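A quick aside before the break. I want you to see a complete sequence-to-structure record at least once, exactly as it would be stored in a machine-readable document. Don't worry about memorizing anything.
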Amino acid sequence: MAQQGGTSAAPATKSGGGFLDVVERVGNKVPHPVVIFVILIGFVIVLSQVLAWMGASVTAGVYNPVTGKVDQVTTVARSLLTVEGIRFMYTGVVGNFMSFQAVGVIIVAMVGVGVAEEAGLIKALIRKLVAISPAWSLSYILTFVGIVSSIAADAGYLVVIPLAAAAFLSVGRHPVAGLALGFASVASAFLVNILIVPVDGILVGITNDAIALVQPGRTIGLLANQWFETGSVILLTLVIAFITERVIEPRLGKYTGDYKLPADVDNEAEVEARGLRFALWGFLAAVAIIAAITAPPGAPLRDPASGDIIGNTPFMNSLIVSIALIFFLAGSAYGYGSGSMTTGAQAVGAMTKALGSLSGLILLLLVISQFLAHFNYSNMATLAAVSLADVLKEMNLDALWLLLGFIIVVLLLDTIMTGAVPKWAIFAPIFVPLLMQLGVAPDAVLAAYRVGDSPMNSVTPLNAYFALIVTFAQRYDKEAGVGTVIALMLPYVAIMAVIWTAFFAFWHLMGLPWGL
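That is the input. The structure line, written in tokens, reads:
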């Protein structure tokens, strides 16, 4: 992260004329994202009425989180132009916005991150990272950190992506390339990790209920995809770093914008070293607080029923608060030690500045939250998902081709239905039993879903954090827009989808174990 250094809009020298430049120009000529989503809301309202007139409906097994079973459910198109639909749209505006998780996540995280940034801790950490990393390894280190950041749920969007941009800028590389690398790492590899992440427990639970439809008593565990995930993390680290250095950076050229890291001050090394020592104590204090309310038996952040720490627990569900606390205490301590932030008023000012920079984003999220609520109310996503699944089943493909077709269907659907859990709740009861009857292990079906669900996350504007990435890009290039980000991310999506799918096919054909 960095401080704004001026107002000029001379971002870069791009190698022009190619397909990606056309995508960027066309994308940036579309109306403001707020206007786009208002138009989309109108389209959804009209289409919901048309589908309702047509009597559109589908029937499929859907995971019921209350009973833990798979129920046969008939879903019909719901019009937004009925009395009930209009009431939903009018009375739900505030509720839709307040229940939109991305809003709270962004605001809470930026309270802590804003203090750390204003105090100078982020810059100091970047300098240390660059100092200890060989020049050739920076892309690979940042990519790996971005992929494994899913252990902290969505925190990678708020921490790793702007950190990668600032790290690139600090060594004279194009910051937007660092931004793209961070976004690809966090979003397009979201469902694989070398560690157990919060969403794993939910995905495995849904899978086990789908297994029970054909083989009651058979289950898979949280580590069912561990070997494949580990292999995928290594592969994607190499692929994302390679795309950044061989495709994205040559296209962007040399950065000529005026966005600068804060200037060095006298005795910078000494001041920074003292600040980092204080930051370490602040970090340890934050860890001690978190440990005190997590580690002891019966602690507040343990699961009240099972006592677990990992899984769907208060600890895992509040990771963003823990991260904000760590940044706040470490940043405050760094500011005190370095002399850059020595009063409470300065800390409050840093928080205010960080939140003030989000005003345009919050407006956009208000509109996006209404669009998603209306889209979900109409049941269009479920209608599309089940219809595509039925088409795939009726093609009578053998196991491998059915798995590959399943990956493609998930890839396509991810552009309009970005949540990993809702899609799997629809697909698991359909494809897990079907493929098990063809001799495919349920572990393999879940692994295929991980491949299909991730890559498109970085190009669909329906990603709750896509607008935030556009905001980050505009720090370095004031002309950046939706088209800029899509053009940046298309090479990642295309290459990752092909290579990762081929990697999956190789793993399947070789009969390698998916996990433990």
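Two observations worth writing down. Residues 19-510 form one domain. The chain has 22 helices and two strands. We'll return to this after the break.
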